[in-house]
From TrEMBL:
SUPFAM superfamilies assigned: Sigma3 and sigma4 domains of RNA polymerase sigma factors
Name by which UniProt lists this protein: RNA polymerase sigma factor 70 region 4 type 2 domain-containing protein
């Protein structure tokens, strides 16, 4: 198909931009700079977890879940908003309708329970 010079230039620029985007995505595939170290070390490793690591991770998760279950519903909700959603104490206070200090006390109570459970086992 024959196209004008202007259309040809436009298509070439579009192809070039697509190629640049592809390279940028490849450079930051895991949030780090794409370099020889990552290619040599990260890509050659197996992504499978060792059985011992898997078991330790599962056991730690069970312990943390047990600690969260020992908390009140309010404490657990506030802590999860803080830890998983990344909200600030003042934002959680606005959501829950309470003070920032109440949120901080709830989060600290959960932290103490988790720390206590992880240290005893």
């Amino acid at each position: 198909m024959e196209v004008s010079v202007e259309v040809g230039k436009y298509l070439d620029r579009a192809d070039h931009k697509t190629e640049n985007l592809f390279h940028e995505q490849r450079r930051h595939w895991d949030g780090r700079e794409f370099d020889e170290y990552i290619i040599a070390h990260e890509c050659s490793r197996s992504y499978y977890e060792m059985p011992e690591d898997w078991l330790c991770r599962k056991e730690t998760l069970r312990e943390i879940t047990a600690a969260l279950e020992s908390c009140t519903e309010k404490q657990r909700y506030r802590f999860l908003l803080y830890a998983l959603e990344g909200l600030r104490c003042s934002q959680i206070g606005n959501i829950c309708g309470c003070s920032k200090s109440a949120i901080m006390r709830s989060i600290e109570a959960v932290r103490r329970k988790v720390k206590c459970i992880l240290q005893t086992e």
